[in-house]
Amino acid sequence: MLQQVVAGSAIVALAAAEPDSGDDLRRVTTTAARDGDDWVLSGSKIMALAAPLATHLLITARTSGNPADTDGISLFLVDLDRAPAGLHMHGYRTIDDRRAADLVLDGLRLPRRRPARRRRPAWPSLEQARDEGAAAVAAEAVGAMRKVLADTVAYCKQRQQFGQPIGSFQALQHRMVDMYLELEQAAASLYLVILNLDDADPWCRAFGVSAAKATIGRAARFIGQNAVQLHGGMGMTEELAIGHYFKRLTALQYEFGSTDYHLARFAELTRPGAHPR
C-alpha cells in the first residue's frame, strides 16, 4: 500500500472526525465488530478531506473501550475501487474549493486478509500523523500570509484616494505594521514546530505543534481579514488572488485541529505536572 501511495497510483483519505467528536479524534463512536472472519463497521464520519477523489479510505473505528478511550481505536483500510456495500458517501466542495465527504457506514463488511494477531494501538500513530499534518499546514499558512501581506502593501501603494496612495495614510500604515508583526510571530512559532517535530518525547512534539497552530491560526484570521478590508470591494472579487487566499487561510485554521482546540491542548500540556519528566 505504501509503495502505491509513493508511486501516486493510490490516494488514501482519512475518515476520523465524527458528528459529535469535534476536534477530539479520540472520541470514536463508530464501531467495528467481529462477525466470523469479517469486521463489520457501523457509524458515521464527517469532513473526510479528499474522500471523493480517493482510491482508499482509512477509517477509525472502536473495537473496545468507551468512546473517549484511546486503547480501543483501530484503523481499517477500505478499497473504494471494489465499491463496498454498506458505505454511503456524500461529497461536497469546501470553502477553499477542495473536495470532502461525509460518510455513513451501515454494516460495512471488511474481510480479514491476515491471520489473527494482536492489533497494535492505532492512537499513537494517528496522533503523530495529525501533528505532522498540522505542521505542514502551518508552514503553508505562513507562506500564504507572506503573499497576502505583500499583495496588500503593493495594492495600498497603487490605489489612489484623495489624490494620493492610500498607503500614505498613517492609520492604514499602522494596520499593515500590525499584520507584519502577526506574520513574524507566526513564522517564529513555525520554527518551534520544526525544531520539535522529530523529538522522541511526544510531549515536546505536541507542545510545539499546538503552540504554533494556535499562534498561526490567530495570525491567519487577523491578516486575512485585514487584507480583505484594505482591498475594499476588490478583496471579495474572483479576479484578485486575495479573496482566494483568504478562503484558504480560513480553512487552514481548522485543519488538523482548530485554533481553539490547540489553544486548549496547549493549556493542558503546560499545566503543573503535565510533563512526564
TrEMBL record:
Gene3D superfamilies: Butyryl-CoA Dehydrogenase, subunit A, domain 2, Butyryl-CoA Dehydrogenase, subunit A, domain 3. It is an enzyme of class 1 (oxidoreductase). Residues 13-94 form the Acyl-CoA oxidase/dehydrogenase middle domain. SUPFAM superfamilies: Acyl-CoA dehydrogenase C-terminal domain-like (SSF47203), Acyl-CoA dehydrogenase NM domain-like (SSF56645). Its cofactor is FAD. Keywords: FAD, Flavoprotein, Oxidoreductase. Its EC number is 1.3.1.108. Residues 131-267 form the Acyl-CoA dehydrogenase/oxidase C-terminal domain. One of its GO terms (molecular function) is acyl-CoA dehydrogenase activity. InterPro entries: Acyl-CoA_Oxase/DH_mid-dom (IPR006091), Acyl-CoA_Oxase/DH_mid-dom_sf (IPR046373), AcylCo_DH-like_C (IPR036250), AcylCo_DH/oxidase_C (IPR009075), AcylCoA_DH/oxidase_NM_dom_sf (IPR009100). Belongs to the acyl-CoA dehydrogenase family. This is Caffeyl-CoA reductase-Etf complex subunit CarC. It comes from Mycobacterium talmoniae.
